[in-house]
Write a structure and sequence with these properties.
Blueprint: H1 2-33, H2 40-47, H3 51-57, H4 61-86, H5 90-107, H6 109-117, H7 124-150, H8 159-171, H9 185-200
Helix pairs in contact: 1-2, 1-4, 1-6, 4-5, 4-6, 4-7, 5-7, 5-9, 7-8
Length: about 200
């Protein structure tokens, strides 16, 4: 019995690894061609799978799109948790949030492209899950900004508007921050933090 359970666990791990590989490969295809312009036949070819085998790992094309969005949000939220666990001043937390976000964009450029461009294709519960998770992250940024205002580290700003300025500044890097390029997430995060902080820091 224990051998059967162990075998099932190994099969489950192997299945999950293959599924994640399909998600990664498909993210590249969607980023190159667009979600709506990509057919199941093309996804099968890119992943070297028949249609039945593809559906064994991914129930539908939209489920695959949702999995790509989850990959991005899982990474982004994990970074936000690390920042929260470390604590520190609002200034320090905002800087670390920026570096964590840029690290995800740097490591997953195709996934982030799909995440930012193709989310309107999600429907029903998948669309709602995406909205809830995105809002949860936005609130993390807003809370840090609000704490900075309350502690007088930041001048009196609107946390909601300022969070969207911060997100836009960082998210736009998906167009040029690439693995193997001249710039790293860390080298971009430092000047970004300095530029942004100069705009919101409380003047003495």
């Amino acid at each position: 019995m224990s051998r059967e359970v162990g075998g099932e666990a190994r099969r489950s791990t192997k299945w999950e690894l293959r599924r994640q590989a399909i998600v990664d490969t498909s993210a590249r295809v969607f980023a190159q061609q667009g979600y709506h312009a990509t057919g199941v036949t093309e996804l099968c070819a890119a992943n070297d799978l028949g249609k039945g085998a593809l559906y064994h790992y991914i129930g539908s094309k939209e489920e695959l799109l949702a999995a790509i969005h989850d990959r991005v949000m899982d990474e982004v939220m994990a970074g936000a948790e690390r920042v929260a666990d470390t604590g520190g001043s609002p200034t320090g937390q905002l800087a670390r949030l920026g570096e964590e976000l840029l690290d995800v964009i740097h490591r997953y450029p195709d996934h982030v492209w799909v995440f930012l461009h193709e989310f309107p294709a999600l429907t029903g519960e998948r669309a709602e899950r995406f909205r809830v998770r995105r809002r949860e992250y936005e609130k993390r940024v807003e809370d840090v900004l609000r704490a900075g205002v309350e502690s007088a580290e930041f001048r009196h700003i609107d946390p909601w508007i300022t969070a969207r300025a911060w997100l836009g500044m960082h998210n736009y890097t998906y167009l040029w921050l690439r693995p193997g390029g001249r710039l790293t997430a860390h080298s971009v995060a430092q000047p970004f933090s300095q530029i942004f902080m100069q705009g919101i820091a409380r003047q003495s």
